[in-house]
Each structure stands twice: as C-alpha cells, then as structure tokens.
Design brief:
The chain is mainly α and 122 residues long. The mean pLDDT is 77.
Length: 122
C-alpha cells in the first residue's frame, strides 16, 4: 500500500469518526435541552394549577363569607319582612304606579321605571 492511500484512508476514517462523535454529542445536548424545557413546562403547569386553585378559593362563597364576617360594617337584618303583590281580577300582578313626575322624567331620559313593593305588617 502506498503511503498516500494509507493517509487518505486514515483521514476518511478520522472524519467519519469525528462526525459520529459530533452526532452523538448533539443528540445528548438536544436531550438535555428537551429535559430542561420539560421541567420548565411542568413548573409552569404547576404554577397554573396553583393560580387556578387560588382563584377558585378566593371566589368561593366560604372565603367571601369569611371576609365579610371579618368586616365590622356588614350586618344581617334582625327581622325579615314579607312582600306580597296582589293580583288583579285577571290574575296578573299589579304594578304600583310611579309618581307622575318620576314617570315623566323616565320617559324623557329613557329611564325604565322600577317596580315598588309594599311590605306586609302583621
């Protein structure tokens, strides 16, 4: 074998070996990057779950009730009053008439009138 053929064969084997080693290192590098991204994704997913839990907990009636109970300005009424709407002869409920000035203002400013109920005092 000539020296030039031997050197060219060694050069080709070395190049193929270097390419193979480079390919294997890139495979491991991408695997580590993928693992880092997977860990980051799982952390973000955990944070999302915690935030959703906090939103549900802070919006729950129990939490809101405990916050209201802590404040001194909220009071439940001591007595309840019943309201009765008397039906007219056709069976429809009567709507109390609004005062004429309020009705006029409602028509002018396109404000809808409100239904007013009277309390029953036993």
């Amino acid at each position: 074998m000539k020296m030039s053929k031997f050197l060219s064969l060694v050069f080709c084997v070395t190049c193929v070996s270097l390419l193979y080693v480079y390919q294997q290192t890139e495979i491991f590098r991408f695997a580590y990057l993928g693992q880092k991204k997977q860990c980051l994704f799982e952390d973000l997913l955990d944070k999302n779950t915690v935030l959703r839990y906090n939103i549900k907990r802070n919006g729950s009636l129990v939490y809101i009730g405990s916050k209201i109970a802590k404040s001194n300005d909220f009071q439940m009424p001591e007595s309840y009053r019943l309201v009765r709407l008397a039906p007219d002869k056709e069976g429809a409920l009567k709507k109390p008439r609004a005062q004429p000035i309020a009705a006029l203002a409602a028509r002018i400013f396109s404000v809808k009138s409100e239904v007013q109920a009277k309390t029953i005092n036993p």
